Amino acid sequence: MIEFTYSRTDVPALAGLHARAFPGFFLSGLGPQFLRQLYRGYIEDPTSIISLARGQDGQIIGICVGTLQPLGFYRRLLKRQFFGLCMASGLAAIRNPRALPRLFAALAYRGDIPAGSTGALLSSLCVEPESQGTGLGRTLEENWRAIARVMGARAAFLTTDADDNEAVNRFYLSGGWGLHDQFVTRQGRRMNRFRYELTAAPEGERPK
Question: What is the mean pLDDT of the chain?
């Protein structure tokens, strides 16, 4: 079920998966074009860490994505896909003009690694609604960490909402992530930042 192969042809399916997994969330509200640009960036960047699952019919049913170099990744994404992101952002602004401040913040995003720290960033974990609660999310997340170790990361970070988000926070705490700190965004959202210490991967190790 877990895959190590993917290509740019998977981008539309990944954008659709994200929208179904996170209905009503900010990124989903930016529309399919914006999501396609985002997932194209993950698929094409050599620092991406991707754990992907397909069902028996070959359709993608879950993905956990992030990057080994958060600062460089988002800078390259904006530079490499500038026109595509601008077009997608224009369509998103037409759909929801009130989202413009957060849209500009998304375009300027540089990752949520604490200042002075290094490590991989887990950006998103998506599972098809009908596959949620099956343990697939945990498998994807654990495999993502294994890939990060093999790629040389010694720590991993992620951020998620601190309020009205108990299930997600419990999920990461139960998986061994520790609360690193909390911060408040410019929009007033209180965020939890989690950290996972990754030991050095044995030579020749490959994620399962």
Answer: 84
